[in-house]
Amino acid sequence: MRLEDFDYHLPPELIAQQGAEPRDAARLMVVERQSGRIEHRVFRELPHYLRPGDVLVLNESKVIPARTFAQNPQGTPIEVLLVRELPGGDGRWEALLRPARRARVGTRLTFPEGLCATVEAVQADGSRLLRFEGDIWAHLERIGQTPLPPYIRAPVEPTRYQTVYARTPGSVAAPTAGLHFTPELLACLQAMGVEISYLILHVGPGTFKPVKESPETHVMHREPYEIPPSTAAAVNQAKAQGRRVIAVGTTVVRALETAWSETGLQPGAGETQLFIRPGFHYRVVDALITNFHLPRSTLLMLVSAFMGHELMRRAYQTAVAERYRFYSLGDAMLIL
Questions:
Q1: Residue 124: CB atoms within 10 Å
Q2: pLDDT for res 210
Q3: Alpha-carbon torsion 18, 24, 25, 31, what sign?
Q4: Contact 284/257 with Cβ under 8 angstroms?
Q5: Where are the alpha helices (DSSP H) in the chain?
Q6: According to CATH, what is the number of the domain 67-143?
Q7: What angle do CA 22, 27, 31 make, to 5 degrees?
Q8: Which of left, alpha, beta for 75 (phi over 0: left; psi -120 to 50: alpha)?
Q9: Tell me, what DSSP letter sits at residue 295?
Q10: Options 3.40.1780.10, 3.20.10.10, 3.40.50.720, 3.40.395.10; which CATH number does 3-63+153-335 get?
Q11: DSSP string over 27-84
Q12: Residues 6 or more apart whose Cβ sits within 8 Å of residue 88
């Protein structure tokens, strides 16, 4: 498996800068793995491809306004992207700082409105461990900014970079496959007998980290997840009865496949560092809704492992030729 096998040419104008309005007006490419058939639809037509008894699993993690700014004692402005709050409730966070060289261990950072933090450690990946003095959550709610992927350069309304079912704060990037759902579409699916279940996987900035060398040596980022007992029960019953489990997004795939054991899907909280690439044997997911991903990314490798490498390449070539919109705010693919 070569890194070059996951490369493709994408014209820059196909990188979506705004989401479709309404959300379910996004285009939907439908790919059948067994036949290789490709169809072109609109996302609101999703009910045509689902059936009663399907279990649709969504990630209800909510994007937090994790981007903020501080100054070091010399007055140097420093951009701070909070990655995740550490357990214990003692004000410790992992964070990415820019310029990081201006925030060595022991540096005291001053934020607007009197909030302060001290750099306690520099971690192996260059991120900082900060200990805050004061209410960081209140600070973020007042003046924090929604972190957007680097390829989105146009202004985006924060609510548009949030799923309509987001409930649990913790992500620094949206689980973007879910951005296409509307309350009306979810209600339609439920009315036709589709079971809708939720889990939590808090998306970290590592989701945008490209694979720079061999996929075999790439170290996957770590992300926390939680699977409620009700979701585990719904998935286990579906698998036992031969009904389909449909994952909305790669985050749901990684959480489900991580938590699967010989006795079924295990409820509870944990962390996943699962790197799904060709050769991986899927045990839980039967169908996948996802967006179109960056070249050489772990997300593209996950999709390749699910649908087969040659079909993935043909689907992406078709998407470019048909002028689909790519990445976080772009169009969607349903892989059956």
A1: 6
A2: 77
A3: positive
A4: yes
A5: 136-143, 183-191, 229-241, 250-259, 298-307, 309-321
A6: 2.40.10.240
A7: 145
A8: left
A9: T
A10: 3.40.1780.10
A11: EEEEE-TTT--EEEEEGGGGGGT--TT-EEEEE-EEE---EEEEE-TT--EEEEEEEE
A12: none
Q: How far is CA 222 from CA 143, 167, 247, in A?
A: 27, 21, 20
**Is residue 33's pLDDT more than 80?**
yes
- CATH topology agreement for domains 3-63+153-335 and 67-143: no
- Using an 8 Å Cβ cutoff, are 144 and 93 in contact? no
The answer to whether the beta carbons of residues 274 and 302 sit under 8 Å apart is: no
Which has the closest alpha carbon to 299: 218, 192, 181? 218
- Number of neighbours of residue 180 by Cβ within 10 angstroms: 28
Domain boundaries, given as residue ranges, for the chain: 3-63+153-335, 67-143
- Segment 140-193, tens digit of pLDDT: 999 899 999 989 998 899 999 999 999 999 999 999 999 999 999 999 999 999
Calpha distance 86→280 (Å, rounded) = 31
pLDDT for 1: 75
- Residue 231 in tokens: 């979701």
Helix count and strand count (H, E) for the chain: 6, 19
Residue 129 amino acid letter:
L
Residue 78 CA to its chain's centroid (Å):
26
Whether 117 and 132 have beta carbons less than 8 Å apart is answered as yes
Per-residue pLDDT, 218: 85
For residue 84, which phi and psi values (nearest 5 degrees)?
-165, 150
CA-closest candidate to residue 301, choices 223, 209, 198, 239: 209
CA distance 170 to 59: 12
What pLDDT is attached to residue 67? Answer: 95
3-state secondary structure of 126: coil
For the stretch 38-92, pLDDT in tens is 999 999 999 999 999 999 999 999 999 999 999 999 999 999 999 989 888 889 9
